[in-house]
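Dear V.,

Thank you for sending over the compound details. I've combined the ligand you provided, adenosine-5'-diphosphate, with the protein sequence from our construct and run the structure prediction for the complex. I'm sharing the raw inputs here so there's no ambiguity about protonation or stereochemistry in the SMILES, which I know was a concern on your side last time.
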Amino acid sequence: MAKKIVIASGKGGVGKSSVSAGLSCALQRAGHSVLVVDCDIGLRSLDIMLGAGEDMLFNWGDVITGRCPAERALTPTAYGPMLLCAPKDFEHGYTDEAMRKLAAEYEERFDYMIFDSPAGVGIGFRLSAAAADTAIIVATPDEVCVRNGAIAADNLAALGIEQSRLIINRFDVKATVKRKLLNIDDVIDSTRLRLLGIVEQDSAVSFNLSRGKPLPPRSKSAKAFERIAGRLDGKRIPLKLD
Ligand SMILES: Nc1ncnc2c1ncn2[C@@H]1O[C@H](COP(=O)(O)OP(=O)(O)O)[C@@H](O)[C@H]1O
Ligand SMILES: [Mg+2]
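Below is the predicted structure of the protein with adenosine-5'-diphosphate bound, written out as structure tokens.
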């Protein structure tokens, strides 16, 4: 039975989709079968980030509305995880219950299901959380993002997901020392979330993922995702910056 994790933040552009892609690949490399569900209706990105190519025919909306069987919507990616693409438009059948049924179609054959949430705390956010058991809040170390991350976690708690954990993304030691960004303790204190990992500012994320290329295994971000994947697996891996 898959562990179902929603990746959320409240605010847009903080790295939810990059974390979804990087973490999914790390989990796959650790030997798990992973299904990534792009929940950003109308603004999908994971097909590019995961190198799925142009030939995806169906998305999860087609499964919910009965236009295609669950199996046919699975889109292979270049790096191992399977992908369910986001629909182009919202349809009435997209409800919390429909998302739970959708997850039930796949949960026996995957070890992890990663739901990449859209920005905001509206309907798309709610749908992305509907089938998940746990959440990862992604926050960059700045006041606005940290506050929005805390609000997203509160919203998830109201939806029944109590166990949000925190990934601090785009951490930059030099900017933190110069007090241009919040430090790690500030972010943890303000969000009141348990820290799962830190992903540093890394040009490999913007250059590689945005062009559908994998993160180089020795890049800071790939190593960070490997550690985070290990912690999700229950391993005790100390916090570390590269
Ligand atoms: N750790 C990182 N280092 C450098 N750039 C990053 C990092 N994480 C995300 N980015 C960049 O930030 C932008 C937004 O990332 P994205 O994953 O699309 O955010 P979201 O899904 O939250 O809107 C992208 O250009 C991405 O390449
Ligand atoms: Mg995104």
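A first observation: The chain has eleven helices and eight strands.

Warm regards,
I. M.
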